[in-house]
Write a structure and sequence with these properties.
Helix content: 55-70%
Oligomer: single chain
Number of domains: 1
Distance between the termini: 23 Å
Radius of gyration: 17 Å
Shape: elongated
Number of helices: 5
Length: 104
């Protein structure tokens, strides 16, 4: 019976896994922006990082959110001068604050 009560009570804090996902997302966004540090190699490194970031987004965020974020992440890395967009961080905020299904 005590397990049923624990499952129904919602904690007032975010689980550590959610915070870890935010930290990972910030780190991956930083990696995506690193291509601007060394001029001339930005687009070459973006070709390598684009599919990796897309796969990471799909793995980190399940379902439709992850699939859409993965496609957006790939396009964001492939389109010139859009590396500044923090796709991982935006997806984290969407999943935790805007997605009505996950915030019941």
């Amino acid at each position: 019976m005590s397990q049923d009560i624990q499952l129904k009570v919602k904690p007032n804090y975010k689980p550590q896994a959610t915070i870890a996902k935010l930290i990972l997302g910030l780190f991956f966004d930083f990696i995506g922006m690193l291509s601007y540090i060394i001029p001339g190699i930005a687009e070459t490194t973006d070709l390598i990082w684009a599919p990796i970031s897309g796969m990471l987004l799909v793995v980190m965020y399940k379902g439709t959110v992850g699939k859409v974020a993965g496609v957006v992440g790939i396009l964001e890395e492939l389109i010139p001068f859009t590396d500044i967009i923090p796709t991982f961080t935006i997806t984290w905020f969407y999943e935790n604050y805007l997605d009505k299904k996950n915030n019941k």
